[in-house]
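quick one
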Amino acid sequence: MSRKNDSSPSKQRSARTPGQPKFAIAIMAAGKGTRLKSKHPKVLHEIGGKPLLRHVIDAAKHIVPAGDVYAIIGFEADRVRQAVGGTGVRFIEQLEQRGTGHAIMVGREALANYDHVLVLSGDTPLVRPDVIRRLRDFHLQRQAAMTLLTVEPADPTGYGRVIRKSRSGKPSDEVNAIVEQKQLSESQRKLREINSGIYAFATEPLFANIQKLSTNNPHREYYLTDMAQILSRAGARVVAFKEGEIAETLGINTRAELARLDAQLRSKRCAELMDAGVTIYQPETCVIDSDVTVGPDTVIEPYVQLLGKTSIGSECRIQSGTVIADCEIGDETVVRHYCVLEHSRIGGKASLGPFSHLRPGNEIAAEAHIGNFVELKKTRLGRGSKANHLTYLGDSVIGERVNVGAGTITCNYDGVQKHQTVIEDGVFVGSDSTLVAPVKLGRDAYVGAASCITDDVPEGALAIGRARQTNKEGWVRERRAKLAERGNGRKRS
Ligand code: UD1
Ligand code: CA
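structure w/ uridine-diphosphate-N-acetylglucosamine:
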């Protein structure tokens, strides 16, 4: 520790600050992400089923209240705002993206109200709250004006390199400068310690010096990284906090990195679930989003996707090829091969599939059975009810112990409006029936197979809505005889 820095502005300042110092978190997320070659904002690209920026916000909210998190947005700002609007964070608009330094200049008015600001990047989604916390503590303990989180990856190409001060030959944790890839000298190119783009600043020295940034660099941008040299030259303390976990602090700049971090995140989630008692066979073939929960003793077979806010109970079995998005599933339910289930609630001890399709808005009660090639939409299916084969049930309210025969179709759409079908407890719908909504089948009613039901069926009644069968006795014999006669005539002529 240098004597000179003991009297640095930040030290005097923090000594004056009574009580706990106040922290803001600024997340730089205004850039376009040119290297992704996308028309969409970089921070809205997803890993683990969530936009990059959402991951960073979720981590930030572990450190400070959402109201002290500022997302600096610019490119497609409205879309970004919309995508993360539910998180409660504040937004700062950087209308023109003139560099990371410029992003913080734009945030000055809001950020200067805090003692310190932790700066994160919207494209560094795997940053763990724990790492941010340790960076913050190190920054306070070293009473630094700027603390940068650094890592030493095997290949540092493309990142800003950290130039540490050396004191009588010994390396120190104090930093002279950060040098961007394009400006590296031959000898600096060998340096492996890189700037992660995650920093803590004391706001007073930061904003007292930020106007010294210039655009004198290959990109003609204001580099926030230049603050290291500016503050260091101004006699303020700039320190590096080196972190062991490399992957977590690396940003995403290319599609290949996007895929790599996505895979990492998902294998981490699989590992966590397995630790919590879930069996996952060939986890590397499964796609499980970050927020998915699964109860113990549930078995997940290869090639399963569990997406969004899906939660699965304990002792379930999810068989290969199934995709489940935003569903809640009770305990001991079996989802057999190749089901596609969206935004639905399914009770315990139920059975679905193979090849069932739940479109959004279904409530499937416990012990219900849904079989192959059955599609449901906005349908409530009561306890123990069954629709086992080749059926479409839309906009329906179906009671308990109902048996929906193979090939049953609710005709819920008249070309203009959707209508409801109500099937009360204990009803038996014969195979190949069409139920033309709006229509109601009363309790314990029976529908004869292949009926077209256009009128309500009273409780306990049998409804038959089909043409009556007629049998023509001897018809086949007569026809054969006729054909034979015609054939003989042709041969003779
Ligand atoms: C930056 C660092 C580099 C570091 C690397 C780590 C600079 C100059 N360089 O480089 O030292 O090794 O991160 O990943 O900071 N952004 C804005 N407004 C702007 C420009 C950028 O909000 O005007 C945002 C981007 O959307 C992005 C973040 O800042 O989320 C970082 O910008 P990016 O262009 O990705 O910086 P790198 O080249 O990766
Ligand atoms: Ca980056």
